[in-house]
Design a protein that fits this description.
globular; 23% strand; alpha+beta; six-stranded mixed sheet
Length: 651
Amino acid sequence: MNSHYDPLFAPFDDDAGNFSEYYPDMTKEDFVRMVADRLPDYFSEDIKITDISVKEVVKHNDQHKLGIEFTFADSNFSPVVYPDTLFEDYHAGKPLEEILQALSHTVEKSLPEVPETTKGTVTLALSDYESARHHLSIRLCDPDLNQELLENAVHSKISDFEAIYQLKFAMPDESVGYSTITPAMLDSWGVSMETLQKDAATCTWSEYPILSTMGDTLSYLSFGHPLPNLLETGEPIQMSDDMLPVFVLSNDHAMQGASLITLPDLLDQIGDIIQDDFYILPSSLHEVLIVPQHFNSVDLDALSEMVQSVNESQVAAEDLLSDKVQHYDTKAHLLENAYTHQQRIEHEQSPLEQPETPLSYDIYQIREGSAYHSLQFANLSELEHMGQPVQKSNYEQVYTGTLSENSADGQAPHSEVLESLYEKFNLQHPADYRGHSLSVSDIVVLHENGRDTAYFCDSIGFKEVPEFLQEENLVTMETTGLVVDTHFGTWHTIGSQNFGGKDYFLMEHDKFGDEAACVIVDSSGKLVAEDIWNGFDKDTVEMILAEQNPSDTPLISQQPKDLASSHSREPSPEEKNYLKAAEEYSEENYNEVDGRMESESKQEPGDSIGDGGEAKSSVLKKLHEKQAAVSEQVKNIPVEQIHKSQDAELS
C-alpha cells in the first residue's frame, strides 16, 4: 500500500511502520495535529500522560500560536510545546522519527522534573499574596497591539503603554517562567491595585537596572568586555562631541527591561546622570534607548522614523514593543508621548500673550423626549429628591452668544450678568434663538478669560453647579454601540491616546469596520475628529493639541487616505542605508516549551502562555557603521536590541 497524508484519517506511517514519508503540502496546523497524535508513542513507560490537546494561545502583540499541551498524572505542571522549529526542520528534510524522538525527550526532561520545592513555591504564590509579592514582574506592551492579551490580564496605563502584571519564577534549567495575573487572582488575594503596583515596582527595582553607553554595550556584546553600569556610581557624565549620545537601559538578565521606565525615581536618576531631559526609544520589549534631549539638536521626526524603520525590518514580533517615542521631563517628573511633550512646550513658550476676551455664554435646556419630562422645569430641591444629579448628558445646547466688551454687562459681576440674560431671554428673544424662555432647570455657562462657570436657574435666582462642567467618562477602551453626533450608526473603541491630560478614543464603525473612516471622540463622547484613516498619526496629534477648545463643533476633518499605505510602507533608500543586521546568536534546540501550572486554589490561572526554554537570540541591529556623522545627526546611531536569555511563561 502506498502511504499518503490524509488529515482526516491520518495514516502517517507506511506498511512497515516507518515515518519516512514527506508530505510537501502539509500545513503547520496539520503538522501540529500529526505530532500531537503520534508523540505519545515515543514517551517512556514511566511517563504517565493523562491528557494531550492542541490549543491556540494568544501571546505578546496578540500573536496566535498553535501548541501541544501535555498533562501528567504525577505532576501539576503541564508543558506546552510550540513545534514551529520542528515544522521548519521537517520541511528541510529532517526525518520525522528523529524529530519526534528529540521532542519527546525534551518534554520528559522539562517541567515534570521540576523539584517539589519549586512546585510548592509556585503553587503557594498563586494562592497566597504574601508569597506572590516576592515574585511580581511587569511587562510593558502597546495597547493598540495587545487588545486580546489585555482582556484577561491585570494592567495599568503608563503613558502610551500598558503595564501587565505577572508572577515570575526561576526554573531549574535556568529559564524564567511567567504567569500573568488575572482579575480573578487579584480578587482572590484581596489586595488593591495600588498595593500590587507598589510591590511590583519594588520587585522591578530589585532586577538590577543597568544604564550603559552604546559604545560600552557594543564592546560588551562584540568582545565580552565588562559592561560598566552608570547607575552604580550615579555620577553625572560629561558629554563630548565625539561621544555617541545614546544609552541603553535594561536589567541584568536582559529580559523585559523596558518595564524599568515605570519607575519614576529611576528616570529621575538617569536625568541626573546625563544632566538633561531625554527621549526614550522603545527599542524592544527587553530594553529601551535613552537619547539626551538637547545634545546636538536632536530631531524628533528622525528619531520616530528610525524607530519605525527598525521595528518594521529588524525586530521580531514577539519582541516588538511600540513605535511610540517617549519623553521624560525631569523637572515636571512627567513621562509622556514625545510629540505631546513637543506640542505642550510650544504652547507654554508661545511669546504671544492671550488678550482678555469678551464674556461669552451658552444656554442649555433639558433634552426633549419622554425620558426627560420629569427633569424639565424641576428646581434643585426636586432634582435632589428624585436622586437626579445636574449632569450635562441630560441637556442640549440651545444658544451661544457674546456680551460686548464695551457693554456694562461685559464688566458686571456674574450675578448681574445672569439677571440681565434672564430678562433678555424672557422679554427680548434674539431672532436666531430657538429655545423656550429662560426658566427653572435651565443652565447658563459663562466663559470669561479661559474660565468656565455653570449656573442653574433655580426657583429663586441662579445657583452655581460646578458638577455640570465635570466630564462624564462615557467612553472607555471597552465602549461599543456609541452614538456619535452627526454620524449615523454606532461605533466601538479600537485605540486611545492621552494628550494634555485628556483621553481621546479612536472609534470604528460597528457595521462597516475598517471599510469606513474612523472618528475620534473625547471621554464624554463628543466628536473631536472625523474622516480619520491613519489613527493617531503625527498630523492628527498636532491638530488635537492645537485646537482644543470648548466648542461643540468638530475640531479636525481629514481627507481619506489610502488604507494600505497607512498600515505598511517600504523603507526609503535613505532609511535602508542605515540598516545593518548584526550577528544573531542562536542555539538549535527543541526547548520551545511553556510550563503551565494548575493551581489548587480557587483563583483561575492566567491564560497568557509564552515561549519557554528557548535561548533568546540577540537582535541587536545597527543602523549605521560609520561613526563620523554621529554627533551631527542622531538617526545615524547604531541602534541595537540587546537580549539573550531564556524565557518561559506559566499560567
